[in-house]
């Protein structure tokens, strides 16, 4: 803009100079003409000069307008050039500003990264310092322990020396006593001979007759002693048998570590988004009604985000409903016709999956000669619960424990596994048919020609029939172990509280009991007795009586430990 003003100023100056020059020329002409002319001629010349001056002024105006237009055009071109240059400069400025911002962002990232690295290094250094401090404290503790042990060893060494001296003194005393005993023995022999002669004289018996009488008495005493020894041997055999049985059971359970799977009555399905709840419900609830009628499962849709709950006491129906709903969610088409199609498809797939699951279970246990018709019923046990315990997992556990115990005892391992797997097979269809699961299991196994020991295991594990095979006895034991395993079965809170109350009632019925506590979920009973009423021997006898009474009157899983505590406390204050 300043350049344009300068150009216009120059043009005005040029025009001014040109006007002054034209005026001077006109004045010169007037000065030359006026002296030699008359007033009229001068007036005419003056008018002519005015006309010429007006013409010159008009021409000057035109020249000025032309110059002005030319200057404006030149100024406009120059302004366009300046504007273009300014735009280029602005673009270059913007590019430079962006580059600077990018470089600034990179520098900030690099700064943050370096800061994080420094912080991580500082944390690692602090952790190392802490570990070093911990190690130093551990070393100090170990040194203290070693010093204590060294002092204990020195003390024990002194005790051993003192004991050695006392033993030497006792050895001398025993030697002297042995000499005294030998002297007394010789005296006893002499007295025995005298007594024998006196007895022969009094009883009028000969030596042979007295000898026979002594033999008879010795025989009677030997019989009594032999009975005592036999009883001791029998008790020892029972103790060793019980110990061996515990060892076998412990080894079998330790070698088996199955998952404790408890099925409840609900399943939760996660939705991709909360809008699927409306699609599952459908217009006027037609989709959810169709789904519940076809599957027999209740759909619970509450305020929980992106989640719906399926509720049913039948695990099979619940699993079919779960798989069908998951397929419908993935497919996205949710309407009554599609729901019916998907549910039928899932039911067919479920039958195949159940059969495959049963076959895998049989192969896993190494039972290769079973009728394939039983595979479906074995797999179906997975969708049946008993006291909230999965029946298939329970049957596999019983089969495994029974097989391990059979292998330890040298019995038929495969027979024990087979009987253990099929002992609850009737539960796979007992809810569809009338009658007990044992009767249904017997009929099912007879249909597929299972051996007699399997039929005996089905009946005997509920004491409906006597045990005929040793493998069946192992199955019954394994069944009890599987059911009693902690966490295998749920127990209602009411039954649990009643059992604890019964424990307390039994214990408090004995005299001398001051307090009783049930701990470890009722698996241990701690009894506090009054030391003024009971002695240590009576306390020992009380523990036996409490344990026996609990065995007779209460049903409970596993074992209950009875701990009876008798304690005297004497408190005095130093003032």
Main β-sheet description? 3 strands, antiparallel
Q: Looking across the biggest beta sheet, what order are the strands in?
A: 1-3-2
- Spans of at least 5 consecutive residues with low confidence: 30-37, 257-264, 486-491
The structural class is mainly alpha
Apparent shape: elongated
- As for the number of domains, it is 5
Number of helices: 15
Taken as a percent bin, the fraction of beta residues is 5-15%
Give the rounded overall mean pLDDT.
77
Share of residues in helices? over 70%
The termini sit apart by: 108 Å
SSE pattern: HHHEHHEEHHHEEHHHHHHEEHE
Gyration radius, rounded = 57 Å
Topology (elements, then pairings):
Layout: H1 2-33, H2 39-203, H3 207-255, E1 266-270, H4 276-281, H5 286-295, E2 298-300, E3 307-311, H6 315-331, H7 336-364, H8 375-380, E4 385-386, E5 389-390, H9 391-409, H10 413-422, H11 437-447, H12 452-460, H13 470-484, H14 493-508, E6 513-519, E7 524-529, H15 536-553, E8 561-566
Parallel strand pairs: 7-8
Antiparallel strand pairs: 1-3, 2-3, 4-5, 6-7
Helix pairs in contact: 1-2, 3-9, 5-7, 6-7, 9-10, 9-13, 10-12, 10-13, 11-12, 12-13
């Amino acid at each position: 803009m300043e350049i344009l003003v300068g150009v216009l100023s120059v043009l005005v100056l040029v025009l001014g100079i040109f006007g002054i020059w034209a005026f001077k020329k006109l004045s010169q002409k007037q000065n030359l003409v006026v002296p030699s002319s008359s007033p009229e001629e001068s007036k005419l010349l003056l008018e002519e000069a005015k006309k010429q001056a007006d013409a010159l002024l008009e021409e000057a105006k035109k020249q000025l307008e032309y110059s002005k237009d030319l200057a404006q055009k030149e100024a406009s071109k120059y302004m366009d050039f300046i504007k273009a240059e300014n735009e280029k400069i602005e673009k270059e400025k913007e590019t430079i500003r962006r580059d600077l911002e990018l470089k600034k962002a990179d520098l900030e990232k690099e700064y943050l990264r370096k800061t994080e690295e420094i912080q991580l290094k500082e944390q690692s250094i602090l952790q190392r310092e802490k570990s070093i401090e911990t190690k130093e404290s551990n070393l100090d503790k170990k040194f203290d322990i070693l010093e204590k042990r060294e002092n204990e060893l020195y003390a024990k060494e002194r005790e051993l020396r003192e004991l050695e001296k006392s033993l030497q003194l006792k050895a001398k005393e025993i030697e002297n006593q042995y000499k005294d005993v030998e002297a007394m023995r010789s005296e006893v022999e002499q007295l025995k001979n005298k007594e024998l002669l006196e007895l022969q004289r009094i009883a009028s018996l000969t030596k042979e007759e007295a000898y026979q009488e002594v033999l008879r008495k010795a025989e009677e005493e030997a019989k009594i002693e032999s009975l005592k020894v036999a009883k001791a041997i029998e008790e020892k055999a029972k103790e060793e048998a019980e110990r061996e049985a515990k060892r076998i059971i412990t080894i079998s359970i330790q070698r088996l570590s199955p998952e404790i799977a408890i099925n409840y009555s609900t399943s939760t399905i996660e939705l991709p988004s909360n809008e699927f709840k409306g699609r599952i419900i459908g217009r006027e609830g037609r989709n959810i009604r169709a789904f519940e009628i076809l599957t027999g499962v209740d759909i619970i849709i509450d305020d929980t985000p992106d989640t719906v709950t399926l509720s049913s006491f039948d695990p099979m129906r619940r699993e079919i409903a779960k798989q069908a709903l998951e397929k419908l969610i993935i497919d996205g088409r949710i309407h009554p016709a599609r729901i019916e199609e998907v549910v039928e498809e899932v039911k067919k797939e479920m039958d195949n999956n159940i059969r495959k699951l049963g076959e895998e279970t049989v192969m896993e246990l190494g039972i290769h000669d079973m009728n394939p018709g039983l595979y479906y019923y074995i797999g179906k046990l997975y969708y049946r619960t008993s006291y909230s315990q999965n029946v298939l997992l329970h049957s596999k556990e019983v089969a495994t424990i029974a097989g391990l115990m059979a292998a330890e005892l040298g019995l038929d391992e495969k027979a024990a596994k087979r009987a253990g797997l099929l002992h609850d097979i009737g539960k796979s269809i007992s809810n569809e048919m009338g009658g007990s699961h044992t009767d249904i299991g017997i009929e099912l196994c007879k249909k597929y020609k299972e051996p007699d020991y399997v039929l005996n295991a089905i009946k005997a594990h509920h004491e409906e029939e006597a045990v005929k095979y040793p493998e069946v006895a192992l199955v019954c034991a394994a069944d009890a172990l599987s059911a009693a395993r902690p966490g295998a079965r749920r127990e209602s809170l009411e039954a649990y509280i009643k059992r604890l109350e019964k424990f307390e009632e039994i214990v408090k019925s004995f005299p001398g009991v001051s307090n009783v506590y049930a701990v470890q979920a009722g698996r241990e009973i701690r009894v506090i007795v009054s030391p003024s009423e009971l002695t240590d021997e009576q306390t020992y006898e009380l523990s036996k009586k409490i344990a026996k009474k609990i065995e007779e009157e209460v049903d409970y899983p596993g074992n209950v430990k009875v701990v009876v505590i008798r304690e005297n406390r004497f408190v005095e204050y130093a003032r």
